[in-house]
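Input.
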Amino acid sequence: MADEPVLASLSLTHVHYDPSDPISYLCAFLALVPQGLCVMYATLIWSTREIEIALLFAGQLACEAINFILKRLIKEERPRRMNGKGYGMPSSHAQFVAYFAVSVALFLLLRHRPPSPRVLRRNHTPMSMLERAAWCAVVAGMAAAVAWSRIYLNYHTEKQVLVGWAAGTVSAVGWFVITTVVRRSGWLAWGLETPVAKFFRIRDLVVEEDLCQAGWEKWDDKMTALKAKKKNK
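Output.
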């Protein structure tokens, strides 16, 4: 028994909270939002093969790398009543969700160019600017809740969360500028014509199209043909 190794805990999803406090319990789930977003990224990239989503995820990973470097440069400890390991400045959760929220806003408000409502599309009405702004507000609210939860759970100070939020915002804006330059220079279009991109069926439709629209039109065509076949019997 003495020779058995001491087991360690994989703390990727290990969150401390006060079981007697319902808000603390909710904050524990909010702390898992970044992991959930990573699953979302992987699922959307695999299912849609959209280059815009892949670029967004690449920027998210770069944002995480920046946080890793900043923490080891600043070396600021977590709150005195610490509920976490490692350095606390800046908050990686706040930086992660800030990057995501700002990136979504920049895409929906500046990059997304849906068809004009005057252009008739079967069974599809593009989102208006007001609707896109509303979705941006929803995502920003989610991100703010995640960032605040880190303070409530005592993993970070207010300053650490604010700096993390600022770093995530700067990362999102910087990556948006970089990807805009890549798009306008023609490098992205060139990359999508390479054999590798074609092999994996990488495409760039989400900037102008609804992700669900192409599949929905195929389904609608199938159902229309089926109804016509039944009617002619």
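The chain has a mean pLDDT of 84.
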